[in-house]
Design brief:
GPCR_Rhodpsn, 321 residues, olfactory receptor activity, 3 strands, transmembrane, globular, OR51/52/56-like, three-stranded mixed β-sheet, transmembrane helix, mainly alpha
Length: 321
């Protein structure tokens, strides 16, 4: 009788908070990672804010390509800010505790921003496809109203499709373990602590990745296949070079993002043997793109470089080539 009562009370008990232990296997010296992470976070904030200011300040950048880049900058700031400040608090102040609502909110924000980034890359690929394949119709198709509508549709899509992830996680019962061997709240990392069945959580996570990110990735690469076909039909070598140049920065970012998604997914399979690998890749995937996306555009886009110089007061008399 006493044993039965003890089991019942244990099953009804709900842990009040989770404990984020940090990066698995390197807890003793993980604080040394705080400096590069802090520098990357500052770089991500400054570079993306500079992009937003430059696009707003320069009339020549009021084009769909740069509007999407501005949305991407906002998403990158949101993604980095969702994750890095908490990680730095863990590494600097040993602030490992996180309440259940805060943890579920972080899960939702991470999934939403990741999905939004994937969706914006799809929008950028479509923008380049229309610009190269239908240059005369481009201004009438990619209007400001179109950009606003497609951006809002992406926000709505990601907001609704990712909502069940934290909702399902919150419905699980956490009655005993509350230590997460990670420095952020990942969906599967949190739900693995649950005392009840998490099959539906795993199924929805897998379905979400395949439908949303997998669907975006397929459409992105289909768009670039059509772009390459259109470029190869151009008679002028100069026109071909210009067309490829306008796509190069987008293609670099897209390849980097989806390659990172695939690497993170694959390393999850090796997580049981070497848990540090997926955890570290998860963190880097959240801060590396926000930090380096602006650099890729700055190096590959002449108009953006000139805009940076003007905003920073380094080239008031700079003329566009």
């Amino acid at each position: 009788m006493d044993i039965t009562l003890s089991i019942t009370n244990s099953s009804r008990f709900q842990v009040p908070e989770f404990i984020l232990l940090g990066l698995p296997g390197i807890h003793e010296w993980q604080h040394w990672l705080s400096l590069p992470l802090a520098l990357l976070y500052i770089l991500a904030l400054c570079a993306n804010i500079l992009i937003l200011i430059t696009i707003q300040h320069e009339p020549s950048l009021h084009q769909p390509m740069y509007w999407f880049l501005g949305v991407l900058a906002i998403v990158d700031i949101g993604l980095a800010t969702t994750i890095i400040p908490k990680i730095l608090a863990i590494l600097w102040f040993d602030a490992k505790a996180i309440s259940l609502p805060e943890c579920f909110a972080q899960i939702y924000a991470i999934h939403s921003f990741m999905g939004m980034e994937s969706g914006i890359f799809l929008c950028m690929a479509i923008d380049r496809y229309v610009a190269i394949s239908y240059p005369l119709r481009y201004p009438s198709i990619l209007t400001e109203a179109f950009v606003i509508k497609v951006t809002l549709s992406m926000v709505l899509r990601n907001g609704l499709l990712t909502l069940p992830v934290p909702v399902l996680a919150a419905q699980r019962h956490y009655c005993s373990r509350n230590e997460i061997d990670h420095c952020l709240c990942s969906n599967l990392g949190v739900t693995s602590l649950a005392c009840d069945d998490i099959t539906i959580n795993r199924f929805y996570q897998l379905a979400l990745v395949w439908v949303m990110v997998g669907g975006d990735m397929g459409l992105v690469f289909a768009s670039y296949a059509l772009i390459i076909r259109s470029v190869l039909r151009l008679n002028s070598a100069k026109a071909t070079s210009k067309a490829l140049s306008t796509c190069s920065s987008h293609l670099i970012l897209i390849l980097f993002f989806y390659t990172a998604v695939i690497v993170v997914s694959v390393t999850q399979l090796a997580g049981r043997k070497v848990p540090l690998i997926p955890a570290l890749f998860n963190v880097l995937h959240s801060i590396m793109p926000p930090a380096f996306n602006p650099m890729v555009y700055a190096l590959r886009t002449q108009e953006l470089r000139v805009g940076f110089q003007r905003v920073l007061g380094l080239g008031d008399n700079v003329s566009r080539k």
